[in-house]
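Work package 3, deliverable 3.1, input record:
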Amino acid sequence: MKDVLRQTAETLRQALAARLVPPAEFRSALLAVPPTERDAWLDVVFDLHDVAEDGALLPRGCVPYLPTAVDDVLRAMELAQVGPDDVILDVGSGLGRAALLMQLLTGAVTIGLEIQPALAQASRRLAARVHGARFAVVEGDAAEPSPHLVLGNVFFLYCPFGGARLTRLLGRLEALSRARPIRVCCVDLPLPGCPWLEPVSFDGGALAVYRSARPSTAAATS
Ligand SMILES: C[S@@+](CC[C@H](N)C(=O)[O-])C[C@H]1O[C@@H](n2cnc3c(N)ncnc32)[C@H](O)[C@@H]1O
C-alpha cells in the first residue's frame, strides 16, 4: 500500500480511538481509497494483522471465518438503504470486521452473532479500539432461537452456514417479517425459494439484497 494511503488509514485509526467518527466522515475517507486498496486499508484502520484461526469445535456444516470484501459491505448498505435508525444483525460475525464496518458506515446499532468464542472475544477487542459503542456480539449458534434475532431489521449473511441451519433461520426471519419489514443481505449465499422475500438487487455477483414482501404479495406468489 502506498505511504499516503497508509497515512490516511493511521490518521483515521487514531480518530476512531479518540472519538465517535460520524458515518459521513468515515464513508468519505473510505471512498477516497481506490477500490482495490480498500480491504488492506481497512485492516490498517482496524489494526487487524493476522488471519483468524478457527476453533477446532466449529460444528459440521458451519463455515469458517473469512472476511467479506469491503466493497460488498459498502454496496449492501447502499442497496438496503441502511441508516442510523436500523438494527443490523451480522449472522456469523467472525472478527467483527464487517459488523464494525457496517456500524461505522451507517450509524446503525449492529449486533454480531458468532459461534466461535475466540472470534467473539476478538470482535469485542476490535470494538473497543474503534469506539464501537453501538456494537455488541452474542456468542452462540445463530440457527438456534435467540432473543437477539427479533431486535434486528437488517440481516447480513456472508455464507455462515447452509442446509437445515439456514432453513431454520429463514423460517424465523419469515415469521419476523410478518410483524415488520426486514431486509436481508446475502454474500455468496444462494437462498432456497423464499416467496416472502423480493430482490432489491442481484447482479449475478456475490451480493444479493432482498426486502420482505408485503404479506399480501407473498401470499399471492406462494
Ligand atoms: C464467512 S465468515 C463471515 C464473517 C463475517 N460476517 C464477515 O463478513 O467478516 C462466517 C462466520 O460465521 C460463523 N458461523 C458459522 N456457523 C455459525 C453459527 N451456526 N452460528 C453463528 N456463527 C456461525 C463462523 O465462525 C465465521 O466466523
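Residues 57-221 form a domain with the Rossmann fold fold (CATH 3.40.50.150).
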